[in-house]
Amino acid sequence: MGASGVSTGRTVTDGGQSERPHAAPWHVGRGVRAPRDLAVVPHRHDGRVASDGTRTGRSFPWSRENMTIRNRTLLLAVAGLLSLPVSGVLADDDGIEFLNSGKVLPTNLPFSEAVRVGNTLYLSGQIGIVPGGMPEEAKQTMENIRISLEAHGYQLSDVVKCTVMLADIAEWGSFNQVYRTYFTDRFPARSALGASGLALGARVEVECIAAKAD
Description:
Layout (H helix, E strand, L loop, with lengths): L10 E2 L5 E2 L16 H5 L3 E2 L13 E2 L3 H19 L6 E3 L5 E3 L14 E4 L2 E4 L9 H19 L7 E8 L5 H8 L9 E6 L9 E8 L3
Parallel strand pairs: 9-10
Antiparallel strand pairs: 1-2, 3-4, 5-6, 6-7, 7-8, 8-11, 9-11
Helix pairs in contact: 3-4
């Protein structure tokens, strides 16, 4: 046995001399610790027995139990690959879907573009930072909402609730002029509030909830 408890493959002859009939599969020198598997996993043979009762044939460092664990690990890895989300959709066991179309927001942000629970779609707040003041920002914000809705199978006509956040509540009227052009006579329920500041210096942020009848 080597210093680490791993068989080096040496045998001792009657004269006390050692010889190496087969090279050890791993070289373990002084001060070098053998891999844990080598010290604890017994060798298994291929079952061939010589006439004197000794085992012959090849030796395998893997036990049946270890092979079973390896096979199970492989199956779990394959199952994990098959369950990866497709097209930016991640669903949990309750059927709640976390959606990222990549058409409006980067997909690496610490929140989902939208979350669908049954027939209800919850959109994250959208902004639209473009030159031109409130009218242009409001238009771009509403366009982003439209694009996000359509990416997930909804339309502006499916929106049932909006929350509007304004960096300057004095621009409420200017925002409203743009907002009303995106809906007909069926306006969603809505809340509006003035904020001390919005992300990236935006003038307005709008989040929506959309729903479809069963």
